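Researcher: We plan to redesign the surface later, but first we want a full-length starting point. Tokens attached.
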């Protein structure tokens, strides 16, 4: 059931367009050149990302799903203390595929759940709601279209426990500095007894990381290059996708995977809508994404700086991925 009182309006297409224009103007004229990772997710990009999540080399989604399946009961038991319903708030809910494991566990325990998926994409939220609605007709849905980075969500006071979910190692796409306001806002919205379940990817051997971000079928390469298609379409640019190649690098100093697009030759690209003529040298790169990988220490530091304490950590046997239950 979708609560008809739900608020939140999709960002006006004009806002997305002007944000894109501003970021492209700044990012492509600075050195090193860069674009923001959110630009990777147009319709084609979101579809390619879905494909990435089931690639043999891309272990995070699969590993997190196994952890959730194995520990959903323990996670719920440590938050729910009844008799009031449990409110589950999910940042960047996407299709809510992994959340369904927690909802199944809640159904087994007869816990009444209010599920609030938050996402910038209205289409993703519709998909999340219809997936949840068909499998769990008793769950009350309160979807919210919001950019939780620019507009920190304000949760209504609630008589019961709240479990916030931030899964899929999405926090890793922000620098530690960028992620602080997101986590701090969550901490400020949660009461004692509430919790944040955070999914984070951990530092591991470089070849495993490189393979995950440079798969042999070339899906991640297509995902990265698609950002240029988006600029061609939305800003009337003339990037030649054959003139650039995908690069995935491990940056040990920053503890992050980086995606770049490298110019294969000297070339000039026009971004007509912005009146830009960009000269690329051969080998020059555009930095498109960071994906931070954590250690116990850096994860603990990130959370404590935002006002959280880790209560429980669940890791897979290879220690490649962590789910942490955090309290303020
Ligand atoms: C969405 N995000 C957590 C993914 C990641 O692993 O950083 C995005 C991604 N980029 C390349 N492959 C997957």
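Model: Full-length starting sequence:
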């Amino acid at each position: 059931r979708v609560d008809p009182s739900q608020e939140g309006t999709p960002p006006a297409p004009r806002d997305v367009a002007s944000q894109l224009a501003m970021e492209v103007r700044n990012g492509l004229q600075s050195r090193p050149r860069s674009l923001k990772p959110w630009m990777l997710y147009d319709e084609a990009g979101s579809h390619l990302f879905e494909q990435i999540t089931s690639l043999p080399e891309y272990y995070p989604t699969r590993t997190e799903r196994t952890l959730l399946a194995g520990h959903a009961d323990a996670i719920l038991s440590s938050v729910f203390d009844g008799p009031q319903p449990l409110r589950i708030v999910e940042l960047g809910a996407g299709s809510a595929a992994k959340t369904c494991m927690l909802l199944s566990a809640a159904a087994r325990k007869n816990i009444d759940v209010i599920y609030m998926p938050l996402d910038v994409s209205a289409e993703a939220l519709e998909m999340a709601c219809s997936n949840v609605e068909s499998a769990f007709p008793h769950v009350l849905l309160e979807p919210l279209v919001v950019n939780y980075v620019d507009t920190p969500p304000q949760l209504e006071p609630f008589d019961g426990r709240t479990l916030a979910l931030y899964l899929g190692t999405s926090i890793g796409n922000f620098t530690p500095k960028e992620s602080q306001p997101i986590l701090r806002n969550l901490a400020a919205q949660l009461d004692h007894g509430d919790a944040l379940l955070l999914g984070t990817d951990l530092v591991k051997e470089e070849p495993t990381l490189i393979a995950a971000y440079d798969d042999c079928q070339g899906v991640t390469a297509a995902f990265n290059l698609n950002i240029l298609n988006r600029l061609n379409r939305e800003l009337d640019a003339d990037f030649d996708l054959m003139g650039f190649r995908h690069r995935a690098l491990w940056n040990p100093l920053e503890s992050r995977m980086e995606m770049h697009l490298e110019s294969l030759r000297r070339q000039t690209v026009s971004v007509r809508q912005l009146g830009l003529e960009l000269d690329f040298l051969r080998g020059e790169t555009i930095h498109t994404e960071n994906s931070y990988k954590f250690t116990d220490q850096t994860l603990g530091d990130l959370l404590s700086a935002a006002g959280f304490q880790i209560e429980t950590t669940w890791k897979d046997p290879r220690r490649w991925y962590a789910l942490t239950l955090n309290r303020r």
